[in-house]
Specification:
Belongs to the ABC transporter superfamily. The protein is α/β, with parallel strands linked by helices. It has 2 domains: about 210 residues, P-loop containing nucleotide triphosphate hydrolases (Rossmann fold, 3-Layer(aba) Sandwich); about 60 residues, Alpha-Beta Plaits, CATH 3.30.70. The strands form 3 sheets. It has a 6-stranded mixed beta sheet with strand order 5-6-7-3-8-9, sandwiched between helices. A 4-stranded antiparallel beta sheet has the order 11-12-10-13. The protein has a 3-stranded antiparallel beta sheet with strand order 2-1-4, covered by helices on one side. Helix 5 packs parallel to helix 6. The chain is elongated. The relative contact order is 0.14. The structure holds adenosine-5'-triphosphate. Adenosine-5'-triphosphate binds next to strand 2 and helix 1.
């Protein structure tokens, strides 16, 4: 794994407003990295700084291990605000205009139109595109110069469920083609469905960072019951990979240590002659964890 973005102790103040406070962040090649947080938590400020459109008050960051020069930024494609397209020009004509501005050969257009699934509609005027198509064209325009990194701010805002699903699929397929993606979102569900890693911001402070799979695994609980609950509890407690246990209604709810699996626990219970009449593995959604994290974090 190589580091794509390294943010070190970054802060940004707007007068008295501390938009970002001592942010550290690591994004590795191939990550789909979600910056998650409620409105005003500093996501757009972070993206603005790493794209060089906002100046940090203090701290530093590097792209691909290098200082963030204009040359290095050529490897980054971004959509911070909806780009302006000409309504009466077709999708393809709009991309031609952008090619001229970015000094990218026109041969770059066909592959990006195919990537975002707009090739069949390339000759239709932009004004007739659905919101989802407009967003896909925006992504196509950001991909014209074949960047290594794509940055998106709230990529599914305002879209209908089908448009949302299309954009999410597109993000995953772009990442599968070897690109790194950094996106800001206030939608947990989005991060859970799309991202490999995420950081949670609250009032400009990072309150969590890690992999999505690990966060989900961390939230895994095993719920059990048996005709003899006391015997179940006694036997379960002797399982060496037990992290915690608690009673919830008439069930025993346990958490296992990392790497331990449910079948080993089940085998352990059977060997102790415990007969279960209920066993389910439950995962707390990232949404629930996120809300708990936000509630726990001190301002
Ligand atoms: N240009 C600015 N001038 C003054 N304050 C600003 C400016 N830009 C952002 N802020 C403030 O900085 C804080 C962080 O804002 P930011 O836009 O980065 O958050 P965000 O997480 O992207 O929120 P949203 O989802 O609403 O866009 C907020 O309190 C915001 O009001």
């Amino acid at each position: 794994m190589s580091t794509v973005l390294h943010i070190n102790n970054l802060s940004k103040n707007y007068g008295k407003v501390k938009a970002l406070q001592n942010l550290d962040l690591h994004v590795e090649k191939g990550n789909i990295y979600g910056l998650l947080g409620p409105n005003g938590s500093g996501k757009t400020t972070t993206l603005g700084i790493i794209l060089g459109v906002t100046n940090a008050s203090s701290g530093e960051y590097s792209w691909f291990g290098e200082a963030p020069t204009a040359q290095v930024r050529r490897k980054i494609g971004a959509i911070l605000e909806s780009p302006t397209f000409y309504p009466y020009l077709s999708g393809e004509q709009n991309l031609k205009v952008i090619c001229a501005i970015k000094q990218v050969p026109l041969t770059a257009i066909e592959p990006v139109l195919k990537m975002v699934n707009l090739f069949e509609r390339k000759d239709d005027p932009f004004k007739g595109y659905s919101l989802g198509m407009k967003q896909r064209l925006a992504i196509a325009s950001a991909m014209l110069a074949d960047p290594s990194v794509l940055i998106l701010d709230e990529p599914t805002n305002g879209l209908d469920p089908q448009g949302i699903a299309e954009i999410r699929e597109l993000i995953v397929s772009i990442a599968q083609s070897g690109k790194t993606i950094i996106l800001a979102s206030h939608l947990l569900d989005e991060v859970q469905k799309v991202c490999t890693h995420f950081a949670v911001l609250k009032r400009g402070k990072k309150i969590y960072a890690g992999s999505v799979n690990e966060a989900l695994a961390e939230s895994e609980t095993v719920e059990m019951s048996a005709p003899d609950m006391e015997a179940l509890l006694h036997r379960a407690q002797s399982f060496t990979h037990l992290k915690s246990f608690q009673h919830e209604n008439d069930k025993l709810v346990v958490k296992l240590e990392d790497g331990a699996n449910v079948s080993d626990l089940h085998k352990h219970l059977i060997e102790g002659n415990i007969v279960l009449n209920h066993l389910t593995v439950k995962r707390k959604s990232l949404e629930k964890q996120f809300l708990e994290l936000l509630a726990q974090a001190n301002d």
